[in-house]
Amino acid sequence: MFNIELVLALMVVGCVLALAARGLHIPYPILLVLGGLVLALLPIVPDVELAPELVFLLFLPPLLYFAAFETSVRDVRAQLPSILSLAIGLVLASVAAVAVATFAIRPEFGWPLAFALGAIVSPPDAIAATAVFRGLGVPRRVVTLLESESLFNDASALIVYQAALAAAARGAFSPADAGLDFVVEGFGGIVIGVAVGMAITRLRAWLRDPAVEITVGLLTPWAAYLPAEHFHVSGVLATVTAGLYVGWAAPRIMDSETRMRSHAVWDMVVFILNSLVFILIGMQLSTIVRALSEQSLEQLTVWAALISIVVIAVRLIWVYLDWTSRLAIARLTHRKSRAIPGARETFVVGWAGMRGVVSLATALALPFSLPGRNPAVFVTFGVILVTLVGQGLTLPAVIRRLGVGDVGPHDAYRDELKARTAAADAALARIDELGDEWPDHQPLIDMLRAEYAHRAAHLDDAVGDDSASAAAEEELIEHRKIRQAVIAAERAAVLDLRNQGSIHDAAWRKVQRELDLEELRMQA
Question: Do 352 and 458 fall into the same domain?
Fold first, then answer.
């Protein structure tokens, strides 16, 4: 266990390393893990043992929930076959391959530990995928596929893991019982997640206090996770399902103020949890090595390297088999699907199998009485380093080398034009109605009508005219610059009054908020 002073110190280290990662243009989880490794080697830093229950109860639910909340349900539905293929089929294939390799290398540990190790290292980590892929400019469908896979594969891997431990305890393995447990735990987790999502959306639609609503949002992950674990079904699937449900309903249950404040709170929470968990992964080195005092580190390192090669190779083979089969089906049925990635994007999907905190926590949760527990933990740590640090560091270069980029700015801007045109048309229609309702405020109505008519005219010129799109976008940027300059001048003037003591802080905060809202609306 660790004290509050150490937690605060790790948060400071996390902020420093995250800033350094931005300057170095590398995903910050990688630098955090490496920073944790360095801290583990310093004699002044106390040993920290990452308790599995701490990860599964404190870190996992909110991080999974927020990732699911931000995930598009429509995109998940469009790529559901590939997501299930990776989250279930690839996990089972990886478990089998790692189990066979482990039994071939260390047969004295037996099949139960071999399958348990396979379940531990088979699922790529949702937390790592979300954090590493942010800002890399990867196509949206690839990000959706990877994040969705990582959200659901933990459940299938943990069910196999529990079946392996049960087999170790009983001395026998029943495929029928394992398959039944897989279906029951998965379905039960989804049912609880939907029930919690429905209850939370009804509650939040009734709430009108942003602070209370945000607090309810922060508690929602545990509202799904804890009941699922109590009834011995998948807490991971329950949390993910609740996140998807509430995220889909969010536009109609949250007002603009709550959305802005909630997003700011969640950004902070996710960053803190990510920082702590990735640093703690690196800091496990000293504890893991100490437990292996009677083992050969050279042999264990070779074992970890071989298992890393196995999981990487199986993933690459599987994603290409999945891609070719989907492509063949599309050609046979004469259907074209934009959801099917190209060959280069498929390689990025195959190369992005980064393991993380879930694998390490699951390894640490292995019973101490299980023969080979400590070597299995070391191998897991090695696989995390190879995939998270090794593949994560090379991923940006792979993306650039293959020329895999997000959708073109022209396509994205056309979607924005379509949305803005609809909004401007709706605003003009409503302004005409308001003119009849408020005849005494005709100057304001005329001003609003002129503003939105001007906006709609420029949008109409841009839609369908590729040559006008760039000019319209440039004019929009210039308008934003002008309005930003005006807002900055207003803010500076009011700040001077506050600094001089001419106005109360409450008045300053109110006017500042109005200016911030105006700036956010303009930027949107």
Answer: no
